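ARCHIVE CARD
SHELF: 3
SLOT: left
DATA:
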Amino acid sequence: MANPKIGRYEILSALGQGAMGVVYRATDPLLERTVAIKTISLELSRDEFDEFERRFYREASSAGRLNHPNIVTIHDVGNNDDIAYMAMEFLEGNELRDILDAGGLMAPERVAAIASQVADGLAFAHAHGVVHRDIKPSNIMILKNGVVKITDFGIALIPSSSRTMAGMVLGSPKYMSPEQVVGQDVDGRSDIFSLGVVLYEMLTGKPPFSGDNISAIMFRILNEMPPPPGDLRPELPKAFNDIVARALAKHPDDRYQDAGEMAQDLRAYQRLPASANVRADDRPRTLERRAAPRQTGDQTIRMASLASSQPATAGRAWRRRALLAGVGMALLFAGLWFFNREPPPQPTTSAATALPPALPPAVVAPPAEATLAFAITPWGEVYVDGDKKGVTPPLKELKLAAGKHMVEIRNAGFTPYVEKFELQAGASHKIKHLFK
């Protein structure tokens, strides 16, 4: 008996049941490859379905153009009657949700490795104008080789009257950003907040915002900062307190502005200078009030506790940053004045008492640097002397110390490209490679 089909795909087995439908293991007879089919059951009116179809294909088309090692590849989208589906690369591994549910605390280095790869994928997506909107542990897959993949790009805006409140995106309330809660437009900084929630849960084993109902959860997202991870797990490096606090800032302007910057901090957490424990009352400014009460069953979610976007007094964290910035600027101007001031007049002396000429001041030469540029198609993970430096694109060039280096460019499924060379100070070298 022939296998059942969804579109042209032959269903082999069910992989799991999600909130919106079933995920299947299937085969693509046209290209003879195994794929995962995520089905999305729709309970929509005709008008809602037409709107969904336009939005779904637009979002999936954008996500399908994202070619990055930390983003699942989308092959195809379509619909059969009232079931939409998305065909994507078949992954062998475990959802982060299952790993967290298994219990036990993760080692800090593993947490940093997972979160930094998610941040890498988000940075690439945001650079290409795509916002995920539903970053959570069940949308993060850890493969057997340790590579992390973000899944479910393109489906966070699917409307369903039976599952979401009016005007809200489909997502898990515990991982929503404040601007999602109040129904504002979101950008990549919303994904950074959600990744901060995931990071907190990986570090402590507990979500930072929880409650008995959606109202309580959303109230805490909007108004409360969780205790620093180090309070719940004192052995953690204190740099995690600062990374989490910055990612979970209530106002988008106070967060990391680029997911790539968060990835860099996560990889360098052992070397980051940590400030004193970030206190729960060091709250950055919050969002403007923009949401009317929303009905959920017989509960009313009231967003009346939002503060204005410019409170009378900034939090202590903001004052500390401003003070440090002021001190830094003062030292900079003092240094510029010292080195550019007119020398004081020297007293004249007779030949008999003339002093020997002063030695010229020692000049410390800046470290010799060279430039390494990249032209890699379609993409590659860049390793210099064994250390990962990023993914190109978007990475375009690196500043390296003059001398001998070994560069390795990796792209899953292809033989790595390896090159050894010597850089002269001030020179530039470009690596061109096409993976095929």
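SLOT: right
DATA:
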Amino acid sequence: MASKEHWVYILKCQDGTLYTGYTNDLAHRIRMHEEGKGAKYTRGRGPFHLMYTCAFEDKSDAMRAEYRIKKLPRHEKLAMIQAYEKGMCDE
């Protein structure tokens, strides 16, 4: 079995907005966001709070999950984060 090296994550930006992303190195990607070198959307919106993570064994599965989450309305993302905080990753 391959290790889970592909991550989908949700950040809460300082302005209260949510950003969903994909990475294969979560710690490095969060550092890049904090340094203003991450996604264009997150530049100038830090500091960030990591609200949700879900690991995948396959990059394509992770990318599909990222796409699906990005299409969700905010209230559904918040519900997903609440479920995650209770220990339920829905992927």
